[in-house]
Amino acid sequence: DPDTGDNGLLLYSLVNNQMNEFDIDENTGQIFTVSVAGKSGTFYLEVQAADQGTRRLTAQTTVNVTIDSSSSNNMVVAVLNQKINAVEKNIAEVKRVLEDKLAWNVYIIDVYSNESERKARSSTDVTYVKILAFDEANQEVSAENVKRKLREQKSNIEGELNKIFSSSVTAAVEEAPAQSAAPELIATIVLGVLLACTLIASLAYVLFTIRRKRQHEKEHLMKKQAETVEGIDNLYATADKGSLRSLEKLEHTND
Question: Which Pfam families match (predicted)?
Answer without folding.
Answer: Cadherin
